[in-house]
Amino acid sequence: MDLTEYPSLGRLAFFSAQLAGQNRQVEAAVDAQLDEVERLFRAVADRDWDAVLRVSEALSAQKMDRADKAVVRTAQMVCEALRRDPSGAKASRRVDKLLSACREAKIRRGQVQ
Asked: Are 105 and 70 in contact (CB under 8 A)?
C-alpha cells in the first residue's frame, strides 16, 4: 500500500494538537456567551431593565459565527427598544425573541458537538 498520499503520524499529531487548541477557543467563547445568557435570564426575572440592556449590549458586541447572527441581531433590537423606552414595557417581546434565539443557538451547538 502506498502511503505517500496520507499524512505522516507526526503530521497527524500536529493536526490533532491544532484541532484541540481551536476546540478550547470555541468552548471558551461558548462559555462566555452562556454566562451572558444566564445573566440575561436573571435580569429578566428581576425585571432589571438596566441589566437587560447591559447584557444585550454585550451579546450584540460578541463576535459569533453565522449560526448565531440571530442572537446578535435580536440583542441589537432589544438594545434599541430599551434605549427608546427604559421602562422595558415595549422591549419585553424582543427580550422573549432574544431568549428564544439564545435557546436555539444552544440547541444547535449541542447538535454540532
From this structure: yes
